[in-house]
Structure formats: structure tokens, C-alpha cells
From TrEMBL, chain A:
<dbReference type="InterPro" id="IPR033943">
    <property type="entry name" value="Ba3-like_Oxidase_I"/>
</dbReference>
<dbReference type="InterPro" id="IPR023615">
    <property type="entry name" value="Cyt_c_Oxase_su1_BS"/>
</dbReference>
<dbReference type="InterPro" id="IPR000883">
    <property type="entry name" value="Cyt_C_Oxase_1"/>
</dbReference>
<feature type="domain" description="Cytochrome oxidase subunit I profile">
    <location>
        <begin position="25"/>
        <end position="522"/>
    </location>
</feature>
<dbReference type="GO" id="GO:0020037">
    <property type="term" value="F:heme binding"/>
</dbReference>
<keyword id="KW-0812">Transmembrane</keyword>
<feature type="transmembrane region" description="Helical">
    <location>
        <begin position="264"/>
        <end position="284"/>
    </location>
</feature>
From TrEMBL, chain B:
<keyword id="KW-0472">Membrane</keyword>
<feature type="region of interest" description="Disordered">
    <location>
        <begin position="1"/>
        <end position="35"/>
    </location>
</feature>
<keyword id="KW-0812">Transmembrane</keyword>
<protein>
    <recommendedName>
        <fullName>Cytochrome oxidase</fullName>
    </recommendedName>
</protein>
<feature type="transmembrane region" description="Helical">
    <location>
        <begin position="45"/>
        <end position="65"/>
    </location>
</feature>
<keyword id="KW-1133">Transmembrane helix</keyword>
UniProtKB/TrEMBL annotation, chain C:
<protein>
    <recommendedName>
        <fullName>CbaC protein</fullName>
    </recommendedName>
</protein>
<feature type="transmembrane region" description="Helical">
    <location>
        <begin position="12"/>
        <end position="38"/>
    </location>
</feature>
<keyword id="KW-0812">Transmembrane</keyword>
<keyword id="KW-0472">Membrane</keyword>
<feature type="transmembrane region" description="Helical">
    <location>
        <begin position="44"/>
        <end position="63"/>
    </location>
</feature>
<keyword id="KW-1133">Transmembrane helix</keyword>
Length: 596, 76, 71
């Protein structure tokens, strides 16, 4: 039966681990499908092409879209991919499969709790909602279950990281003189970054938002929880990106027919991300009052340094692909591009994702500038930007990577590679339309997070074309994206019906310039973690101190919105009533005073 | 079908390998093998320079025309 | 392309190249509008652009089949 020419697949060698990876991917893709559905609803609703939900439900949809896609989809894919990478590159099974199952279960339970809490927002009768968007800024308040689910999910990811560090320690004991394999290196540095980053949300959720939504504390300091959110919010974008980078650095060169150009350069890049991705979060708060300009300026400077690892990545990855093209017989300054395997959806998907990332780099530079950010802040430009980065560079790479990984994880072929190719190309085209429309709309001042961005007695003035035209563009783009998402999911579903085949295994070639060309200190995780912590302390101690000194840990007071807990809401309504009655009486008194 | 297992070499011609699995199964039969020394990524450099030129051009436009060119926005 | 089993003359490359070109042509109108302040009506621009792109595709196809007959 087995006459295949290829090597053993991952699932042949590590069936239990492969099953974990498949389960994580399954959750990721369910979230992706739901998220894409909500995406197209938004695209049609806010452009007034088709409105089949009441506008009051728009924020439930938007919250579900954001959370399902950037928390559930990306992070479940990440843990699946990282489990594959750790097991494959250390070439050893997990230390204790029960732990591995436990963290996957925790993450899943947490996601389901948070997800259901959000979706209950559609059912008014239940009185539970969490329409707080994925940034959950106070004074927006969600039902406690939203925060609780999030906390459980986070704990799951922490255990996952610990599980991988444990694998490393066990491997290291047996290979004391070896360099950490590159894939494992990516996982370990990324998880260190994650531990540091999640301090921010964990504090915000556990000490402030959850107790507040439970009614244990009266108020929170919105600027403090916001700043803690962005402490996490910037590094999380690199957390989304690192699985894509892992695929670009270690799988893409192989698919292109070449080898990674430089392993040492790759290590430097991942260390730089660990060091620099947290002390920049304030660049999301350029417009927040209450944070001194000087802190914003420091955040901007750090952000500009972050361009370095991204440029290094562009160079290394493209050079590796060029290496493949030249090995395949490509020639010329640009002619080598023709020698690449464009018919392969895994290859083309990753390349188009990279191309869109390059475009996203441009709008990112605009966002990052402290003054020029004022031009685009909170406009539709911003979703335009991040649908290029997380919505395409990351999401499309994950889909493309799945096309390559699928046989390794299941011993089954993909149902159809041509459909896969069509799918990635449609995503690219659809995103070009949607993102272009969003960027341009943003420059005209059209706001994001708005169900009905049309106002009485006011028209957005356009430099060219018309708002109506941009709306059509956005809606067509969004629809194409949705179709592409369906094609992807259907292709995978049909692939499950393929018979199992032996000999589909593939190996990953070593880098042209291997790890031994780099100093050993690069592998010193302790050192990098320590430096990263120091940088974070330097960047955040003063701003956080100033915020707390200004308005206290729990802020100056104010009401939460909406008031979800019934008991609370009665109390608050009563309070508001007395307050307004009091105010009216006082007014009456004042008027009387004047008259008299 | 036959106990659910078919071979990867199910009559596929060599060229079809590209279709049946995602990439050539191994790197042995590439046209030529290029070592680190022989390989000079000049195409990459060219692409990155083109990208850079576009980037700088667009940034300059955004800053000087869109940003400085727009008047002050006074809120409230 | 004899002797190179890995390099099939793929129509995949043509498809991808075509789509990337289409996106570039599409963005060109934005560039004209934003950078140069030239407001080209979409009703004119898109049909013309589409015609040009399809023309290119047909021409490419014809050239390629001529090429492969010779080879
Ligand atoms: C079917 C494909 C998609 C469509 C049609 C779509 C559409 C949209 C639209 C129109 C908005 C803006 C809504 C507004 O501000 O009023 C939006 C927001 C957003 N999208 Fe998507 N999107 C898609 C895929 C994705 C993917 C793949 C990701 C990330 C992995 C993503 C992440 C987000 C996030 C984080 C927001 C912001 C939510 C917020 O403001 O709280 N989207 N999407
Ligand atoms: Cu950021």
C-alpha cells in the first residue's frame, strides 16, 4: 500500500500532537467563518447597501467580528501552529499530553463563554450583553462572563507557553550543545513577548474590569484601563504576526524551491520583536488626553525602531524566495519572479499576503506619526490599515499555510488546489477593493465603528469620485472576501472526505547560512526577557504613575454604559432619577431665586 | 477506496508532482543548487528599492499635501 | 523547458500576474484622484481599464500558444 516517494508526515510520526493541532485549527476556522459572516454584514450595513439587522445590533456584530477574528481565529491558529513547530523542530513528543489537552480545553471553554456572552447581545430578553468591541474600553461595560471567559482563555495560553518551555528544557537536557532550532526559537521568543504583554490585560481585567462589572467596585479609571489595554494591544499585533512570520521564514522558502537565506538574521529579528513590541503601545493613544506629549513622543520613536525588524524580514524572506526561483532556473533582475510556483495556493497565498503587508506598512507609517495620525485617527482608514495587516498578511498566510500543512496533519490531500488558488486570489482582489475604499473614506473623514455614517445636513466632501461609489466598492470587496472565506472552508471540509494517502510527508531544508554563523548569546532567553522587562518598565512606569497620580486607581467616577446587571441597573436608574430630580429641583430653585 | 490508502505516486507524471503535493517533495532535483556564496540576491535588492521609493513618495504626499494642506480642525 | 521537470509553464503565474496588475490598475485611479487631483469618472475608467486588461490577457494567451508551437 505504501509506495509514496515522500517522507513520513507529521501525523505519521506524532499522531497525538497532530490531533491537538487539528483541534486548535478547527476552533480557529469556526471562528473565522462566523467572523467573516459578521464582516460582510457590517460591510453591507454601514454602506447602506443592505440592512437586515437593526442598527442597534451593529455593535454586537462588530464586537463578535473583532473578538472572533483577532482573538479566537488568530490565536487558536497560533497555538496549533506553534505546537506543530515545537514538536517538529525538537523532534520529540509533548512531555505530557494531558497538560496539552488541558490548555486547549481551557482556551476553548474561555472562548465559548466570551463568544456566547457577546452573541447573547442579539437576544434582548436575556439581558446579557457585551457590546464593548474587542478593545473593551471603560466606561463601556460587558457582562462579567465576557471578562471571565477572557481570563480563562488567557490562562490557557499561559499554560500553552509553559508547555513549550518545558519541551525546550527537556530537549536542552538531552542536547546541551545544540542551538535551538529556528522554529522553536520563534515560539519561545514569541511566548516571552506574550507573557510580558498579557500583564497589561490581565491587570486590567482581573483587578478592574471584572470586579467593576460584578459590582464589587464602583468605578474604574478609564484612562488607566485603556493604557493597560494598549500595553497589551500593540504586542498582540506581533503575536498575530509571528505565526505568519514563522511560515514565511521556515515554510515559504521550501515551497519556493529554495532555502532560508539567513538563520542568524531571522533570530535577530525575533529578538528585536521581543524587545521592542511592548514599549510602544502608547502610539495607539496619541489622541488621549491625560498622557503627556513626551511619553507619546517616546512611543513614536520606539515605533520607528520597530521598522527595522520588519525591513529585515522583507529582505530575508524575499531573498529566500529569490534563491528558490534561481534554483528553479529563474534569471534576470526581475525575470526570476516567473520561475516561481504560482499555481500552488500555499505559495501564492503567502506571497500575496506579503505584498499586502507591504502596502499595510505604508498606512502603518502614517498611523505611527504623532502628528499625521490626527489626519486618520478613528476614521475608516484604520480598519483599512489593519485589514491589510492582520486581516490579510496574517489571515491569508494562515489560510495558505493550511493548504501546505493539511496533508502533513491528516495524510489526506487537499480537495482542490485550483479552488485554493482561486480562493487566495479572490481574497487579494476583494481586500484590495475593501481596503482601498476604507483608506480613501478615512481620508474624507468617514468614521469607523459607525452603523450609519450619514448625517443630516452634512456631506463628506470628496477629492474625487463620490462617497456612494466608495460605499459600493467597500461592499463589493467585503462580499468577495466573504465568498473567499466560504471557498476556503468548503475546500477544507471536502478535503476531509479524501482518502488517506501515504508518503505525503515533506521536510524543511536547512538555512543557507545556518545558526552556527550567529553568536550563541542570541539563544539566551533569560537575557532577552530581562532586557525586555527593563524596556517596558522604562516606557510605562512614568505614564502609568502619572495617570494614577492624576485621577487615582479608580478614576474620578461616572456611570458605566450600558448597565447590564439587572440589580445594578435598577439601583443606578433610581440613583439617576433622584439625581435628575434633585437637579431639576435645584434648577427650579435657581429660577425662583432669579425671579425673586 | 482500497482500504482507504492510495499511493502518492498514483500515476502522476513528474510535472504533476507540483499539483499533487504543495511543493517538490525534496530539493534534490532543482535545476541547480546555489550555495550561500554563489547566491547574490540582487533581485531582492531591486524590489526593495522600488518599494522604498513608492513608500517615501506616498509619505511625502501624505505629510505635505494631505496633512499640512488641510486647515485646522476645530472641534467644539 | 525540457530537462526541468519542476518548471511547468504554469497558467498560475499568468493568473496571479493578471490579478496583481488589475489591482495596480485599479489603484491607479486612486493615485490620480488623491495625488494629482484628476477626477476620472469611474463609469468611464473601469470599463476602459477592464477592456485593456482583457486585451492584454488575450494577447498574452495568443503569444504563448505561438511560443509553445515553436518550442
Ligand atoms: C470576510 C472578510 C471581512 C470583512 C467583509 C470585514 C469587514 C469589516 C468592516 C466593514 C469593518 C469596519 C466596521 C466599522 O468600523 O464600522 C471591520 C472591522 C474589523 N475587522 Fe474585519 N472584515 C473581514 C475580515 C477580517 C479579518 C480576517 C480580520 C482579522 C483577522 C478582521 C478584523 C477586524 C477588526 C479587528 C475590526 C475592528 C472592530 C472594531 O472596530 O472593534 N476582519 N471588518
Ligand atoms: Cu500598535
Amino acid at each position: 500500500m505504501s509506495t509514496g516517494s515522500g517522507a513520513a508526515t507529521f501525523v505519521d510520526r506524532y499522531p497525538e500532537e497532530a490531533s491537538i493541532v487539528r483541534q486548535a485549527f478547527f476552533v480557529a476556522f469556526v471562528a473565522f467563518g462566523l467572523g467573516a459572516l459578521f464582516g460582510v454584514i457590517q460591510a453591507l450595513h454601514r454602506t447602506d447597501i443592505l440592512r437586515f439587522i437593526p442598527s442597534t445590533d451593529y455593535y454586537t456584530v462588530l464586537t463578535a467580528h473583532g473578538v472572533l477574528l483577532v482573538i479566537v481565529f488568530t490565536i487558536f491558529f497560533l497555538v496549533g501552529l506553534f505546537q506543530w513547530a515545537i514538536t517538529r523542530s525538537f523532534d520529540r513528543p509533548v512531555e505530557d499530553i494531558r497538560i496539552t489537552k488541558a490548555w486547549l480545553a481551557l482556551m476553548s471553554v474561555g472562548s465559548v463563554v466570551t463568544g456566547v456572552t457577546i452573541l447573547l447581545g442579539f437576544v434582548d430578553e436575556v439581558g446579557i450583553s457585551a457590546d464593548v468591541l474587542f478593545t473593551f474600553y471603560a466606561p463601556l461595560q460587558a457582562h462579567p462572563l465576557f471578562y471571565a471567559g477572557l481570563a480563562v482563555f488567557l490562562v490557557g495560553t499561559w499554560i500553552a507557553g509553559a508547555d513549550w518551555f518545558r519541551s525546550w528544557l527537556a530537549w536542552n537536557a538531552e542536547h546541551p550543545d545544540d542551538r535551538i532550532p529556528l522554529q522553536a526559537f520563534v515560539v519561545l521568543t514569541t511566548m516571552l513577548m506574550w507573557y510580558i504583554a498579557t500583564i497589561g490585560v490581565a491587570v486590567a481585567v482581573l483587578f478592574f474590569l471584572l470586579p467593576w462589572s460584578l459590582g464589587l467596585i464602583e468605578t474604574v479609571n478609564p484612562l488607566l484601563t485603556r493604557t493597560l489595554f494598549w500595553f497589551f494591544g500593540h504586542p498582540v499585533v506581533y503575536f498575530w504576526l509571528m505565526p505568519a512570520y514563522l511560515l514565511w521564514y521556515t515554510v515559504l522558502p521550501k515551497i519556493a524551491g529554495g532555502r532560508l537565506f539567513s538563520d542568524p538574521l531571522a533570530r535577530v529579528v525575533f529578538v528585536l520583536f521581543l524587545l521592542l513590541s511592548t514599549p510602544v503601545g502608547i502610539h495607539h493613544q496619541y489622541l488621549d488626553p491625560g498622557i503627556a506629549e513626551s511619553f507619546k513622543f517616546i512611543a513614536m520613536t520606539n515605533t520607528m525602531f520597530l521598522l527595522l525588524p520588519s525591513l529585515l524580514t522583507a529582505f530575508t524572506v524575499v531573498a529566500s524566495v529569490e534563491h528558490g526561483a534561481r534554483q528553479r532556473g529563474g534569471t534576470g533582475l526581475f525575470g526570476w519572479l516567473r520561475a516561481l510556483p504560482w499555481r500552488d495556493p500555499a505559495f501564492t497565498g503567502m506571497m500575496l499576503a506579503g505584498l499586502m503587508f507591504a502596502a499595510g506598512g505604508f498606512s502603518g507609517m502614517i498611523n505611527a506619526g504623532m502628528n499625521i495620525n490626527y489626519l486618520v485617527h478613528n476614521t475608516l482608514w484604520v480598519p483599512g490599515h489593519f485589514h491589510l495587516t492582520v486581516g490579510t498578511a496574517v489571515a491569508l498566510t494562515m489560510m495558505a499555510g493550511t493548504y501546505w500543512l493539511w496533508p502533513q496533519l491528516t495524510n489526506r490531500r487537499l480537495y482542490s488546489r485550483p479552488i485554493g488558488l482561486l480562493q487566495v486570489v479572490v481574497w487579494f482582489g476583494g481586500m484590495a477593493l475593501m481596503s482601498n475604499a476604507m483608506h480613501v473614506s478615512g481620508l474624507y473623514g468617514i468614521p469607523r465603528r459607525t452603523a450609519e455614517p450619514q448625517y443630516q445636513g452634512f456631506d463628506f466632501s470628496t477629492a474625487f469620485g463620490s462617497v456612494a461609489e466608495l460605499n459600493v466598492q467597500l461592499a463589493i470587496g467585503g462580499t468577495l472576501l466573504f465568498v473567499s472565506a466560504l471557498l476556503f472552508l468548503a475546500n477544507l471540509a471536502f478535503s476531509w472526505g479524501n482518502p488517506t494517502t501515504s508518503g505525503l510527508g515533506q521536510t524543511l531544508p536547512p538555512a543557507l547560512s545556518g545558526p552556527d554563523d550567529s553568536p550563541r548569546v542570541l539563544d539566551n532567553m533569560r537575557l532577552w526577557a530581562a532586557i525586555a522587562l527593563v524596556l517596558v518598565a522604562l516606557a510605562y512606569a512614568l505614564p502609568l504613575g502619572a495617570i494614577v497620580a492624576d485621577s487615582g486607581l479608580f478614576g474620578p467616577g461616572g456611570d458605566a454604559y450600558p448597565v447590564t446587571v439587572v440589580l445594578n441597573s435598577v439601583a443606578v436608574t433610581a440613583e439617576r432619577l433622584t439625581a435628575s430630580v434633585g437637579a431639576t429641583l435645584a434648577d427650579v430653585g435657581g429660577v425662583l431665586e432669579v425671579i425673586r | 477506496m482500497n482500504e482507504g490508502m492510495v499511493s502518492a505516486d498514483d500515476g502522476a507524471t513528474h510535472g504533476d508532482l507540483e499539483r499533487s503535493v504543495s511543493a517538490p517533495p525534496d530539493q534534490a532535483d532543482v535545476d541547480r543548487t546555489l550555495s550561500h556564496e554563489e547566491f547574490d540576491p540582487k533581485g531582492t535588492l531591486a524590489l526593495i528599492l522600488v518599494y522604498f521609493a513608492i513608500l517615501v513618495g506616498m509619505w511625502v504626499f501624505m505629510y505635505f499635501v494631505e496633512f499640512l494642506g488641510n486647515g485646522l480642525t476645530v472641534v467644539g | 523547458m525540457t530537462g526541468n521537470p519542476l518548471r511547468i509553464e504554469t497558467s498560475g503565474g499568468v493568473l496571479v500576474g493578471f490579478v496583481v496588475l488589475a489591482v495596480v490598475v485599479f489603484e491607479l485611479r486612486t493615485v490620480l484622484g488623491m495625488l494629482f487631483g484628476i477626477d476620472v469618472s469611474g463609469v468611464v475608467y473601469f470599463p476602459v481599464a477592464l477592456a485593456v486588461l482583457v486585451g492584454l490577457l488575450v494577447a498574452e494567451n495568443a503569444l504563448r500558444s505561438v511560443g509553445s508551437k515553436e518550442g
